[in-house]
Amino acid sequence: MTATYSELRARARESLRGNWGKAIGGLVILGLISVVLNLLNEVPALGLIASLLVGGALGLGATSFYLGIARGSNPPVSDVFSGFKNFVNAFVLYLLMGIFVFLWTLLLIVPGIIASFRYSMAYYIMKENPDISPLDAIRQSKELMVGHKWRFFVLNLTFIGWALLAIVTFGIGYLWLAPYIYVTQAHFYDDLKASKSVPPPPLPPFGYNSSL
């Protein structure tokens, strides 16, 4: 049985207890890198190329870091750079997901959004299976998310109130909100994986009458 939205958020808060400083520190590092990449946009094409090159590794590293917090493994903040250890696979995964989502978006915005949810577990899968091919990570993410894309969408919607409150604080609140969301999503992945691994109940014996 899958966890409710409130249960997933409660698990995230418990995981973040005593780890808020670390979680925010990782976010700040990623934010500073994003600022540098934006500055590189002043040079034609340079910012785009740099973002393309490091986007996959940073995405994989951030996933590894916040998944570690969710699992209570006390990851160092430097884990946000751990994706560079698997740079090629992370780069190809980032590139393929971007292309696939873009192609779906050409049809309509909604198919593109659905595609992004379909591939949303790919980084988690690659983190746990470093030797997996990017296409296999995408395929496994699609299989894992069958019947759960709407659930993931609604889970993210449950943070809207906090997002509005963060706006009132001139964005400062996002330093707490973003890690909260990322760790909740990590718990969503673990809960989803656990629910998929539960074997179906055995079939009743031949001739068994359930009405008896």
UniProtKB/TrEMBL annotation:
Residue intervals passing through the bilayer: 20-40, 47-70, 90-117, 152-177
Could you list this entry's UniProt keywords, alphabetically sorted.
Membrane, Transmembrane, Transmembrane helix
User: Does the record bear Electron transport in its keywords?
Assistant: no
Q: What is this protein called?
A: Putative membrane protein
Q: Which organism is it from?
A: Paenibacillus phyllosphaerae
Per the UniProt record, the lineage of the source organism begins with:
Bacteria, Bacillati, Bacillota, Bacilli, Bacillales
